[in-house]
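Supplementary notes for students who missed Thursday's class. We covered one full example, reproduced here. Read the sequence, then the structure, then the short commentary at the end.
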Amino acid sequence: MARQVAAASALLPAGIDPDCLVFSCAEAVPQAGITFAGADDLYASMRGRVCGRTRAVTTLFPAYAYRRPAPKRLTGPDPAGIEAVARWYGELDDTYRGGFPATLLCETRDVRLGGNVVHYREGGSLRILYETHRLSDAGMIEAIGLDRDRVDEHFGDEGVYFLLGSVGSFNYGHWLVDDLPRLEGFFAIRRLHPGREITILLPGYDPQMDEVRRRMIALTLGRDTRWRAVFYDRSQVYALPHLYFATPCSQEPFGASPQAVAAVRRRLLGRTRFARAEMALRTMGAPERGRRLFVDRAGSRGRTLVNRPEVVAALERRGFEVIDPEQFSPRQQIVRFARARVVVGLAGAAMTNTIFCPPGAKILTVVPDSGWSDPFFWNLASVCGQPYSALFGRWSEREDVAARRDFSVAVPDLEAALDAL
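Structure (token representation):
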């Protein structure tokens, strides 16, 4: 066991010892299961450590388990690499088909928020609430203020505070799947505090992404205006007399609560029903317009197509509408994806909008190379009941970082993948 816990310790950032981790509340303990390689022994070592300052208010989403169908088709220039990807996907499904915990709305008191770590001190010892992050995110945890009982700003006793965020909040796709579903906790808090202003605390990133998150919160909450979004400085430490938070609703990249994704879909499709009806009226003379989307990607973000003109021409010949979702508001993105029945897109955050497509919509992700085989979109399509395919290309040599390296896809491979949808 010591060896396993030591391995977990190596994953955590400097200053975080596994012995500091505590379960947020007693209700979380029996749900600890296989959510990350090597976590069983870590959880066993934590089992006697439960935060006495936290209570579970309600269950937002139940524990979940599901199977992921094998991709309908994987296409590309490297058969051996594609075979390895298919085998890996099968292994992931076998290993991570169940054991995912429920999402709990919790209330804690007298804690500190530094970076993206919620912590406190008890008897001089540091304690970190484990369920405010996921072990799979360990490499991105920003631990601020753990070395001493540091406080840069105090939040007042009179406020109602709800933490909404994760280490991936800067990314639209992770915001949509990992964070926004937990906004369901707001409605439970509202029932407890009718008429009170609720402060939603979010880790601040760049102004553009912060504004996207604010607008999506406003869209989700609809007519409720008794709230404010505060994008806190991740380099500061905040003292909170009490704080609501929701435990994770996903385990990236191989697990996402179907109920959590469905909640986002239900709320936002409901909020956009008039805009979608207006779109349907505008396209009455061309009912197939917008049914086939190609999700493009801005060149400034990297991981774009070297042979984009040839690829776009092939797609347009087949009736695809080319869109760059960054050019649209969140509401407009939802409306467009809700109409689509076939979506082809470059692997990137914008493809997470496929959660708004109906079950049965066909998804084809264009991936840079079989050596870059993130299962995120395959897993998401499985959760949403959408047949999934992937077309792999070949990396160029113009960028060293794989996540940003441009690539190309053979047009005949693309046409074969489209024929197979």
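Commentary. Confidence is low (pLDDT under 50) at residues 1-8. The domain at 273-419 is CATH 3.40.50 (Rossmann fold). If anything here is unclear, bring it to office hours.
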